[in-house]
Amino acid sequence: MKFSTASLATAAAVLATVNASSKLRSTNVRRYLSYEKVAGYAPGSQVTDHCAIDRDQAAIEAELAKKTPEAFENALRIYNEGGNSKSYAQVTLTTPLSTFIGAGTAILGRNAEGNEVAGKAYEDYQAGTSVIKVQYATTDIQETYVECQVGALAEADRNLSGCFVDQGDLTIDGQEFSYTYVPKSDNLNGRTIAGFSTEARDKMRVGCKGCPYEDFLYFYDYYGSDTYAHDWVTAAFAGDKTTFRNGNADFSQYGMDGKEQIIKKGTAYLNIFMYVIREFEDALDDCERGCINCNDDPVHAWDEGVCFYTGSIEGQDGAGDGSLLHQLADKRCADYKTCGVDGTDLEGMARLNYELFDLFALGNFQLQSGNCPAARDTTKRVAQKMYIPMIQGSIRYAYKMDKLQGGEKEAAEGAAFAAAVLPRIHAASPEAAQTIYNNLRVGASSTDSAAVKSAFESVYPALGITCAEMGGLWNEAEKSYYSGMEPCQDVSTRETETVVKNNNTLAIALGCTFGALFAIAAAFILFIRNREKRGEMTFETWKTAEQSVAKDMN
């Protein structure tokens, strides 16, 4: 994986700070740097379990690709129930708890092979409780972060090697308790893609320190629903109509091809997208200004945001083919010729990802050092850039529908990408949003790709993004941009070109003027010289004649 100059500068700043810090602080930093990287990002906390949410997304996509009613039902269960993140066992104790047990209390048991399995109390439990949840312990190693993955996963995808055996004893706060449960049905998950949306009201609009979060409010105001993402996905699974304030869709018009695209893009680009931003905002909520050793919780929330953006499949270097937003940016850069560090290539990691991961590292450092105002500015820049692939996707599929005879699949992809960005566009320009919606909505009778592109470009300044960042839709077969899909020009670029053009025009005009004057002067000199050779009156003779006349008059 390559690192841009900004990445190296950030790393240098962090290193300098570490060298100048106290012994305690240095110990903390060494602890932070011990975790596996996430596509090049060095987390300051254990987030392997959070990164694994992309395995649920991949499992959903695998089921949807089968395009059968049964497979769609399986995908819906995985969406709602999960299978890979925050795994826990729900067990029934033979003898109820004799005392209060707090969330996080260590609990030990054994698996079917007799090996020890560690866990902790999922939540607080009062004395007398018989049914408890035990969350499995996770490790710092992504490949083996947890060995109990069940939930709603297909039989072939389950992993029960690290689950508790079906009956035995648990050691809870030093006491032994007999228990029973059914491993295949009682191993569940506390983190699901559906939950990212169903819990949005309390986590993004009314129940958080910094509520309402700005980007979430764009979507709430536009759709009129806290659970807009969940509403979109479940309506698509059911083949129903949405009941939003704006941006409605009738999914009964689609078959399996269209619904597959609507659902899998909805889960990733509506549910997960907003939760990424939520985690960064949550980090800011907990940031303590000027405090060096008290920002572990904000750093953990920030790390979670990076994980939900990236996932686990991308690997430590970001070279894997994941299922979340990191992978989307890499896909779109190949369409818009914005890959590579300089954003001029057709393959490799997106320039957008290089820029975002520079900001991720910067935000981590700002939180660790208690520079909360700077971290807020960084979060704003991250959120602005995250909309770019959504816009690229919208324009790309508008063009496919308009010029390349796209079918149901392409129409659904365009509708899904538009749904993921329309609220932000609407906040900047309701007129632009309406144009985009009219052309890309589910069931649109026609699509004018030029109008869609123009509508998006009209709000780039308000969104804080540039034409250069967006690029143009590239036609690799022709080695040029598709006609009408060339990169737009930023205002500053146009102004510069206008100044250059005006300066060139002025230079040409002045050159012509001085050239003409020079020619006239040269011709006059030749004229005078010829008169002298013929003995005719010149300047001197004229002067003598004038003096003689003046003398006679006196």
Keywords, separated by commas or semicolons:
globular; 554 residues; two-stranded antiparallel ribbon; disordered N terminus; disordered C terminus
Q: Can you characterise this structure?
A:
The protein has 24 helices and nine strands. Helix 11 runs antiparallel to helix 15, helix 13 packs across helix 16 and helix 16 runs antiparallel to helix 20. It is 55% helix and 8% strand. The chain is of the alpha+beta class. The strands form two sheets. Strands 1-4-3-2-5-6 form a six-stranded antiparallel β-barrel. A two-stranded antiparallel sheet has the order 8-9.
Can you lay out the helices and strands and say which pair or pack?
Layout: H1 5-20, H2 23-32, H3 48-51, H4 53-66, H5 69-81, E1 87-93, E2 106-110, E3 116-121, E4 131-136, E5 167-172, E6 175-180, H6 183-186, E7 187-189, H7 193-198, H8 200-205, H9 214-223, H10 228-238, H11 256-286, H12 296-310, H13 325-336, H14 351-368, H15 372-386, H16 388-403, H17 408-419, H18 422-428, H19 430-440, H20 449-457, H21 460-463, H22 467-470, E8 474-475, E9 480-481, H23 491-533, H24 539-553
Antiparallel strand pairs: 1-4, 1-6, 1-7, 2-3, 2-5, 3-4, 5-6, 8-9
Helix pairs in contact: 1-14, 4-5, 4-11, 9-18, 10-11, 11-12, 11-15, 11-17, 12-14, 13-16, 14-15, 16-17, 16-20, 18-19, 19-20
* Structural class estimated from helices and strands: alpha+beta
Total number of helices: 24
Average pLDDT rating:
88
Global shape: globular
Strand order of the largest sheet: 1-4-3-2-5-6
- Gap between N and C termini: 99 Å
Strand content: 5-15%
Helix content: 55-70%
The major beta sheet can be summarized as:
6 strands, antiparallel, barrel
How many beta-strand runs?
9
Integer-rounded radius of gyration: 33 Å
Task: Report the uncertain regions.
Answer: 1-32, 496-501, 537-554
